[in-house]
Amino acid sequence: MTTIFLGATLDRWFQALLAGLSLFILLFALRLFFRKKAAQRANPNLVTQLLSQMMLSAAVVASVWLAARFLQPSASVSALLRVLLIASLTIQIGRWSDSAVEHWVNQQITSIPEDNYSRRTSLRGILFIARVLIWLVAALVILQSIPNFDIASIIASLGLGGIAIGLAAQSLVSDLLSSLTIHLDKPFEPGDTIKTGNFSGTVEQVGLKSTKIRNLSGEELSISNSELLKAPLQNFSRMQERRVSFSIHISTNTPADKLARVPQLIESAFNEIENIRFSRAHFQSFSQTGFVFEVVYFVTSPTYDLFVKAQNLINLRICQNLQTEAISFSQLPAFSPELLNRP
Q: What pLDDT shows up at residue 42?
């Protein structure tokens, strides 16, 4: 006669106990082995670190769930064990993902010079954002595994409040992903001078939701990360050299032989100026304001102050060189009302 205990035979109970206990002993032995291995090394590898962080609670839940497969429990008990299994495995995977990202970030930080604060700050920002995303996904997976628990339906049932929550969450996630993009792609870093849309200044901090920029006039601007990446962005700190082009209008009374010497006089104004590379000066065109000469040169440094000082010196030298040859600039015509109103 077969003995039945709590809806299952003793053979089934024995098989369930053997399977569950075997799985728990296996997982516990793996955890113990890798914990000892990690303790013996100053810098254990990633696999050793992850397996040494195996949670006993996850091993217990997995063992109980496996044992329950032999006993055919009721639907409510099966649903409860399923939720517990998904929750424990999700938390375990979340911890492993968290540790893996932290391990990668620490490796990157150790290879960066200590004075490179912007790069170190960017990596720490990546770690924080990755952790937020990992545990946000983990929470959603656990909630979704609960029977009769529909997140979308619950938010929708809240009416206008649910719409507001959904829009706010969408905006927050968009800014978080944009912040992660900024830290990974690095279109700019703290300390860079940038221009986006109608705003320009020096980046002070890249946050999770917004980036703080110190405007050239002194005030602080806070721009959301998603909006910051929508507009074309200029990073002046990444500029290797600056191209400068301008025109000089020479009087129409200047003789042709002196016009032929103008390019040489302009070029001589660039002699022995540091960080300046002369490109060309040529007679470009005729106009109502005189003979037009185009001048092009390059500033081989992104520093704006150096560009302004060099421009001032070059303009003075060009004026001096032309005045020594009695070459005058043309006078601009007076603007009449008709001329001002032209498109």
A: 73
